[in-house]
Specification:
Layout lengths: L2 H8 L14 E3 L2 E3 L6 E2 L1 H33 L7 H32 L5 H45 L1
Antiparallel strand pairs: 1-2, 2-3
Helix pairs in contact: 2-3, 2-4, 3-4
């Protein structure tokens, strides 16, 4: 028996000799029902979709932080108005909620990735954590530098109005 005949006789799902694999083959989060290609299993697909949702949330946080920066620059200018300040407050609440939700999702994914045999997921989580930190850093800096004094001033103004 030649070497080629030997390997062909082993039939690792080959369709050239013998029958193709009919049963599902599970390989590190991938399944194949026909032996020709692999699709993500439900668990891996869920992990991927949660990672994609996190990336979308990072983009949303970044976009809303940019809007907040533009609104903050308008405070104290002729275009300053109560509607602008309400919009700023709404954006701040929205971003705060997104940051919190994203942190919780990241923790859940991190716990999942701690299971044995999940090296690829752990590496992906590390990248997501880094992206989370970078994305939220700009938001945190905006709150510390610009919004904190503005919000304190607004509180003082509202206290003066209620006292009068």
């Amino acid at each position: 028996m030649s070497r080629r005949d030997h390997y062909d006789s082993l039939n690792y799902g080959s369709t050239s000799r013998g029958a193709p694999l009919k049963d599902k083959v599970h390989l590190d989060g991938f399944t194949s029902s026909d032996g020709e290609g692999y699709q993500l299993s439900g668990e891996a697909n869920d992990f991927d979709s949660q990672c994609q949702e996190m990336s979308n949330a990072f983009q949303s946080i970044s976009r809303n932080t940019s809007q907040m920066e533009r609104l903050v620059r308008q405070i104290g200018t002729p275009s300053d108005a109560p509607g602008l300040r309400r919009r700023l407050g709404d954006l701040r609440s929205s971003v705060k909620e997104e940051v919190s939700d994203t942190a919780q999702t990241l923790k859940r994914l991190e716990e999942t990735a701690r299971e044995p045999g999940r090296r690829h997921e752990r590496l992906r989580i590390e990248r997501l954590k880094s992206e989370y930190y970078d994305t939220t850093k700009r938001y945190r800096n905006l709150l510390k530098i610009w919004l904190k004094p503005i919000l304190q001033r607004l509180k003082l103004e509202s206290k003066k109005e209620t006292n009068n």
